[in-house]
Amino acid sequence: MDIQDKTKEELISELQELLHESDSLKALIEKREAEFLIANKELEAFSYSVSHDLRAPLRNMNGYVDLLLSPFTIPFLIKQSIT
Questions:
Q1: How many whole angstroms separate alpha carbon 3 and alpha carbon 10?
Q2: pLDDT tens digits for 24-55?
Q3: Radius of gyration, alpha carbons of the chain
Q4: Do the Cβ atoms of 54 and 47 come closer than 8 Å?
Q5: How far apart are CA 81 and CA 74, in angstroms?
Q6: Which of 4, 14, 29, 43 has the fewest CB atoms inside 10 Å of its own CB, making it the most exposed?
Q7: What are phi and psi of 16, to 5 degrees?
Q8: What is the pLDDT, as a whole number, of residue 8?
Q9: 80 phi and psi, to 5 degrees?
Q10: For residues 73 and 67, is the Cβ–Cβ distance under 8 A?
Q11: Between 8-69 and 73-82, two packed helices, what is the crossing angle to 10 degrees?
């Protein structure tokens, strides 16, 4: 059916349906955006928590590595492995 064959009422009805669908899609986009922002904030909080929880153990491991690589430790370890 060609657009010229449609009556004014049919065109208005189709336009109203399109506007209603457009409004529904806008509402869905806003809802999804709000869900995304909430999830993003939760992810930020989680990554902050994890990074701070891992900081102390990594600092301890770094201290042990520094101790093992110190100039005083290497000769001691070599001496211990010989005896």
A1: 10
A2: 999 999 999 999 999 999 999 999 999 888 88
A3: 34
A4: no
A5: 11
A6: 4
A7: -65, -40
A8: 86
A9: -65, -35
A10: yes
A11: 70
* 2 pLDDT more than 70: no
End-to-end distance of the chain based on CA atoms, in angstroms? 99
Q: What is the mean pLDDT of the segment spanning 41-70?
A: 88
CA-to-CA distance for 78 and 13, rounded, in angstroms?
90
**H helices present in 1-83, as ranges:** 8-69, 73-82
Say yes or no to pLDDT of 20 above 90.
Answer: yes
**Domain spans of the chain?**
7-82
Enter the tokens of residue 32: 């999804």
Q: How far apart are CA 59 and CA 82, in angstroms?
A: 31
Instruction: Take residue 40 and report the two structure tokens written for it.
Output: 């993003």
Residue, of 61 and 76, whose pLDDT is higher = 61
